[in-house]
Amino acid sequence: MLMLDCSSESGSFSNLFETGTAVNAPADASGQSPAHLAACGGEAFFLLWQLQTGANLNQQDCLGEAPIHKAAKAGSLECLALLVAGDAKIDLCNNSGQTAADLALDYGFLECAKFLRTIQHTQTMKLRGQSGYWLSDRLGLQREDPTAQKQESETSRSINRKRRRSDDLVS
After folding, report:
1. Is 4 domain-assigned?
2. 44: which residues sit within 8 A by CB, 6+ positions away?
3. 6 neighbors 70 (Cβ within 8 angstroms)
4. How far apart are the first and last CA of the chain?
5. What residues are paired with 143 via a beta bridge?
C-alpha cells in the first residue's frame, strides 16, 4: 500500500485507488487503511466510498487510532458525521488513552469535539434508559449521582408518611 501523509491532495488518493489497494488492506508499517487516509485528509467523498465498500470503521493503526481519530485531528466534521452514521465507536481510545473528542479538543477543533460529545451523551442516555440523575465528571463522562437516588427515596417516604397522617385524621 502507498503511504501518504495526511494532506488532502486528491491526486494522492487517485494513486492509492489506482494501485488496487483493498478496502481493509493488511496493516503496513503504520497500520493505516485507505479509510484512515481518507479521514486524515478530510476527504469525505473517498471515506464514504470506503464505507460503502465495507471498510472496517474501527480498525486501529500503530498509534491505536481509528479513522474517527484521524478525522477529529483533521477537524473534518463531514468525515466525523459519516463515521458516526456508520456506527464507528466514538469512545474508542488510542494508545495514549485519548478518544476522538479529546483529540479534536487538543487540535483546536471545538465544533468537532462538541459534536462528538453530544453524540456520546445521547448514546449514553439511550443506554442508561434516561432514568435517575446524572453528573458529568471532568472528562464529560456521564455518571449516576447516588445522592440523588437517596434524596428521591427519602422524599417519597416523607410524602407517604404525610398521606398516612392525613388519612388518620379523616377516619
Report:
1. no
2. 38, 76, 78, 79, 82
3. yes
4. 86
5. 135
Q: Identify the CATH number of the domain in which residue 67 sits.
A: 1.25.40.20
Q: Is the dihedral of CA 89, 54, 30, 82 positive or negative?
A: negative
Provide the domain count of the chain.
2
Q: Quick one: 118 and 151 in the same domain?
A: no
Q: What does the alpha-carbon distance between residue 171 and residue 161 come to, in Å, rounded to a whole number? A: 16
Assigned domain for 5 exists:
no
Domain residues for the domain of 98 are: 10-131
**3 is a domain residue:** no
pTM: 0.64
Left if phi > 0, otherwise alpha if psi is -120 to 50, otherwise beta: which for 109? beta
Tell whether 95 is covered by a domain: yes
Give the CA dihedral 39, 41, 46, 47, nearest 10 degrees: 10
Contact 2, 21 (CB under 8 A): yes
Grid cell, residue 52, equals: 460503502
- Whether residues 146 and 63 share a domain: the answer is no
84-141 pLDDT per residue, tens: 999 899 999 999 999 999 999 999 999 999 999 999 999 888 888 755 545 555 555 5
Distance CA 45, CA 85 (A): 14
